Amino acid sequence: MSTNWLVTGARGLLGQDVLAELATDPDAVVTGLDREQLGITDRDAVRAAVAGHRVVVNCAAWTDVDGAERSEAAATAVNGTGVRHLGHACADAGAILLHISTDYVFPGDVRRPYPENAPTGPVNAYGRSKLAGERAVVELLPRTGYIVRTAWLYGAHGPNFVATMLELAARRQTLDVVADQHGQPTWSRALARQLAALGRAALTGGAPAGIYHGTAAGRTTWCGLVRETFRLSGLDPERIRPVGSDKFPRPATRPAFGVLDHGNWLRAGLAPLPPWDDQLAAALKDPAFADLAAAARASARHT
To answer: What is the model's pTM?
Structure first.
């Protein structure tokens, strides 16, 4: 029996991978809408778009962390109010909502992985806007709302940190990279597979509603991520120099520790995401990354 899925933010980094993953499911009938086709701040448009769908995967979001610091009301309109519109629409349609959130809802002032039920306390406007969305899902969809927090997301379909570092490797001999922020680099395609599995489990009643942490296993720093990216790409990881966050002052404060625990996957009978370095090794085989790595190696040979 087929199931109608709706993916919002369908042209984004994660949205494109969710569409590709669902395309492999013969029972999934998928509608993908980008922000030009559906702005989730439009309540009536959201209600019309959700009608007739059984599962909604919300990849639409304001993701400009520093921009949110300057325009918190605009960020909250998307990440908070827009999610509330989706919650109301899903409640009316009897649909399951898989909503993507972030580790930035936490303050980052601990040194143990945050469990799903840990107290929140965002330190920037972006985190506050995403927390508003989480609260809307919990309030409106206590039995059919799923919050999936992710972090340090990279992939083949849009600007991201891994691609940027490989691009810079072709132009600079050394790179200074922050080494005092700890997190879990997560490949968007791996997260897309996890979201599809969660949606199917939700449909059969196998996964309870609530919060899930959609990040890779293990932990590293931004510096560790780039060094491993270079090593796997045939570049010298010693070209990466560790520095403190104070070397790159930004409008928005970044949590120093964004490592998340994954216990709710196991309680739902689903395996958590693989380790971050295994994900990275798989991701770098994608032509989008492989071509950047090849250009960086060619540049290194001519230096």
So the answer is: 0.97
Q: Give Cβ neighbours of residue 149 (< 8 Å, ≥ 6 apart).
A: 100, 101, 102, 103, 105, 211, 212, 213, 214, 215, 260
**Cβ(50)–Cβ(56) below 8 Å:** yes
Q: Which CATH number fits domain 3-159+184-218+257-274: 1.10.40.30, 1.20.1530.20, 3.40.50.720, 3.40.190.10?
A: 3.40.50.720
Question: 3-state class of 55 per DSSP?
Answer: strand
How does pLDDT run across 75-85, given as a tens digit for each residue?
Answer: 999 999 999 99
CA distance 169 to 164: 9
| Terminal-residue alpha carbon distance, the chain | 59
Q: Would you name the residues annotated as active-site residues?
A: 126
Q: Specify burial of residue 174 (Cβ count, 10 A radius: 0-12, 13-18, 19+).
A: exposed
